[in-house]
Amino acid sequence: MNFFAEAFAFIGDGSSWGGPNGIPTRLGEHLWYSVVAVALASIVAIPVGFAIGHTGRGRAIAVAVSGGARALPTFGVITLIAGWVGIGLTAPMISFVILAIPSVLAGAYAGFEAVDRSTVDAARAVGMTEWQIVTRVEVPLGLPLLIGGIRSAVLQVVATATLATIVGSGGLGSYIITGLRANDYGTMLAGSILVIALAVALEVVFSVVQRLVVPAGVTAGRPTDSRARVARRAPGTATPLQEGTQ
């Protein structure tokens, strides 16, 4: 039996696009869970990450906590919280926030740490306050890495949000769970394909956004230090200083 044919037949069937169990409704629920979870995680993680990146303090603790949070099994966390707060959206949402925090936190403090310290020192030298340094120097230069952290968090949550169906919530995972219970592997595969398609679409969107937020004059991934430029010279090629002394 061709499960892929059944899956695409389900997706292409007009009846699958209408009603409370239709693809647009389930897709909207799935996207809503992901956006809310990452937004809540960002509210917590971004200020903490910026503070760590700006001051250089607390990085070891943040790395340890992030590593511990990454190691938590989301399914187990959902089950544990559901036993405490009951069936519904609260348990998976808390779990998704916990899942998203490490990536956003890492992107926030890594973005600030990537800013050249000489640039920060120059900003202080011209009289900028610490707040001005953060908002006018570190945030614009560190924004691409922050977006990268949010991008990673979004993809993780989108892939994991299928588990929300287990405790009575909706989303694209409903097709997977329903298909599994009914031995309808075509529907189950259709749900998986829709999750993958959503993840790929969001990956493309965030890739574009991450490129757009790179400040003018900054070329991502290319060394700008003068020593790096000298190191790229071919062996035996004289530097300008050597040429002047010859």
Summarize the topology.
Blueprint: H1 3-12, H2 23-55, H3 59-71, H4 74-85, H5 90-113, H6 117-125, H7 130-160, H8 173-181, H9 185-212, H10 226-231, H11 240-245
Helix pairs in contact: 1-9, 2-5, 2-7, 3-5, 4-5, 5-7, 6-7, 7-9, 8-9
Key features?
246 residues, mainly alpha, MetI-like fold, disordered C terminus
Describe this structure in words.
This protein is mostly helical and 246 residues long. It has a single domain (3-245), classed as MetI-like (MetI-like fold, Orthogonal Bundle). It contains eleven helices and no strands. It has helices spanning 3-12, 23-55, 59-71, 74-85, 90-113, 117-125, 130-160, 173-181, 185-212, 226-231, 240-245. α6 runs antiparallel to α7 (130-160). The radius of gyration is 24 Å and the shape is elongated. The protein starts with a helix and ends with a helix. Mean pLDDT is 84; it is low at 220-246.
Between the first and last Cα atoms, what is the distance in angstroms? 79 Å
- Would you count the extended β strands for me? 0
Class of secondary structure makeup:
mainly alpha
Strand portion: under 5%
CATH topology: MetI-like fold
The CATH homology group name: MetI-like
Pick out the low-confidence regions: 220-246
Query: At the first level of CATH, what is the class?
Result: Mainly Alpha
| Rg calc | 24 Å
Order of helices and strands: HHHHHHHHHHH
Structural domains: how many: 1
- Helix amount: over 70%
Q: List the total number of helices.
A: 11
| CATH architecture level-2 label | Orthogonal Bundle
Oligomer: single chain
User: For the residues shown, what is the average pLDDT?
Assistant: 84
Largest sheet: none
Give the overall form: elongated
